[in-house]
């Protein structure tokens, strides 16, 4: 949960150094500059920017490696449906590859709680009472700016940005807003939690002036914990069930007193790491996502496990208690409600391009090898002769196939074919 993960300080080996160029501290100029978008009175604007129908097809070729299409889209009318579909197809490979890199990062750095917190703190600033973007806050990548990283609730999240930045550099077409939420959902799933029904295509804010003001994220020890939780999370548009379900993410992570003021310096569960030792965890297996958080709070038998005022409120408040008791007894119910609440939280305040978002296919990126069987080429009941099978096999191998490996897909050719088909469809039906 965002309010409590603000107190987490997950330990892990020293992260790679993040240069100042990666933590944005000053305003950036919009791209393209307004001067290029405003045509002189005697000049047709078409001379400066081609018709969107033609221009979008060429822009798509760059979407995997550059943020240019996203920035340009802010100055142009929305893409027609066929081109928006193609834009999603082009972004999917980058998102899928970034997810694989995040999985590897989790295996080596054990940073699951930190990445969950990163995604939540970017989206948890949302205010449903403000309509304008990005003033409403939410999942917009603003947490990458130093001014927001310095908010008290975000202490230590600069370490998360250091871990994520190399992946951002590698897949520059993926926005920070998407990458933060991708990392958060992946961390839950890789820790044994439920699969989160995510969508992508979030647009980044472009300048630190667009960051939300400090104070939108909750505290862990307010005078009236239950009332405070409702005040903050109702502002986001979340209800009691979602508040309790999201709290269950405290099954991951630990709190360090030197950073948050909460927890013990060390317990029997944290003295040996993984990562840098120390801190106090909410659960004994603090890198495993399950319902033990609710069980442990309910029993209150282990002094080495952390229970904050906002944790205890889940079993003290009558409305919260209904869900907390349910999740302590039924892990499947917790997983179902948590996955739904996490997905909702990850979308708060986001502006999507395309508007309907992009869903990535988590299936295998490469085709499953299939052995060559010449008999598949038989016609009717007549079996091919051995000489014909040998001839087919030779031709199959001549173009790159083998008995144990399928033909490699020509992805560039497939891309050109898709674009060509979309161009034809647009010409026929676009007008």
Automatic annotation (TrEMBL):
Segments of skewed composition (Basic and acidic residues): 255-271
N-terminal signal peptide: none
Catalytic activity: L-ascorbate + H2O2 = L-dehydroascorbate + 2 H2O
GO molecular function: heme binding; L-ascorbate peroxidase activity; metal ion binding
Region (Disordered): 249-281
Enzyme Commission no: 1.11.1.11
Segments crossing the lipid bilayer: 411-430
One GO location term (cellular component): chloroplast
Gene Ontology biological-process annotations: cellular response to oxidative stress; hydrogen peroxide catabolic process; response to reactive oxygen species
Keywords of the record: Calcium, Chloroplast, Heme, Hydrogen peroxide, Iron, Membrane, Metal-binding, Oxidoreductase, Peroxidase, Plastid, Potassium, Transit peptide, Transmembrane, Transmembrane helix
Known cofactor(s): heme b
Subcellular compartments: Plastid, Chloroplast
UniProt domain Plant heme peroxidase family profile: residue ranges: 174-400
Family annotation (PROSITE patterns): PEROXIDASE_1 (PS00435), PEROXIDASE_4 (PS50873)
Listed Pfam families: peroxidase (PF00141)
Family: Belongs to the peroxidase family. Ascorbate peroxidase subfamily.
Main function: Plays a key role in hydrogen peroxide removal.
Protein name: L-ascorbate peroxidase
Lineage, broadest ranks: Eukaryota, Viridiplantae, Streptophyta, Embryophyta, Tracheophyta
């Amino acid at each position: 949960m965002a309010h409590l993960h603000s107190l987490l300080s997950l330990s892990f080996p020293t992260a790679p150094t993040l240069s100042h160029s990666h933590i944005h501290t000053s305003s950036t100029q919009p791209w393209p500059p307004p001067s290029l978008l405003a045509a002189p009175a005697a000049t047709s604007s078409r001379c400066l920017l081609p018709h969107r129908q033609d221009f979008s097809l060429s822009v798509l070729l760059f979407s995997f490696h550059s943020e240019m299409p996203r920035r340009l889209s802010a100055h142009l009318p929305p893409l027609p449906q066929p081109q928006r579909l193609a834009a999603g197809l082009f972004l999917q490979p980058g998102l899928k590859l970034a997810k694989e890199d995040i999985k590897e990062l989790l295996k080596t750095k054990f940073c699951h709680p930190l990445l969950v917190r990163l995604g939540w703190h970017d989206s948890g600033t949302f205010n449903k009472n403000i309509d304008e973007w990005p003033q409403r806050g939410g999942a917009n990548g603003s947490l990458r700016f130093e001014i927001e990283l310095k908010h008290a609730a975000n202490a230590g999240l600069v370490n998360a940005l250091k871990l994520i930045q190399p992946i951002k550099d590698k897949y520059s077409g993926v926005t920070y807003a998407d990458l933060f939420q991708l990392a958060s959902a992946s961390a839950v799933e890789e820790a044994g939690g439920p699969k989160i029904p995510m969508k992508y295509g979030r647009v980044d804010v472009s300048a630190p002036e667009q960051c939300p003001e400090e104070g939108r994220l909750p505290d862990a020890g307010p005078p009236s914990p239950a009332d405070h939780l409702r005040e903050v999370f109702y502002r986001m548009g979340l209800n009691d069930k979602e508040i309790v379900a999201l709290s269950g993410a405290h099954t991951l992570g630990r709190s360090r007193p030197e950073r948050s003021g909460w927890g013990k310096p060390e317990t029997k569960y944290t003295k040996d790491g993984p990562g840098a030792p120390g801190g106090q965890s909410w659960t004994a297996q603090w890198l495993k996502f399950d319902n033990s958080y609710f069980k442990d709070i309910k029993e209150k038998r282990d002094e080495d496990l952390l229970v904050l005022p906002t944790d205890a409120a889940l079993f003290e408040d009558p409305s919260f208690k209904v869900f907390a008791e349910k999740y302590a007894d039924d892990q499947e119910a917790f997983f179902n409600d948590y996955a739904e609440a996490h997905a909702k939280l990850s979308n708060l305040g986001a502006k999507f391009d395309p508007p309907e978002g992009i869903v990535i296919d988590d299936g295998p990126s490469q085709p499953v090898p299939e052995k060559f069987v010449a008999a598949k080429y038989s016609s009717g009941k007549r079996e091919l002769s051995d000489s014909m099978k040998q001839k087919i096999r030779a031709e199959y191998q001549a173009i790159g196939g083998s008995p144990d490996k399928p033909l490699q897909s020509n992805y560039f050719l497939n891309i050109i074919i898709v674009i060509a088909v979309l161009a034809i469809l647009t010409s026929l039906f676009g007008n």
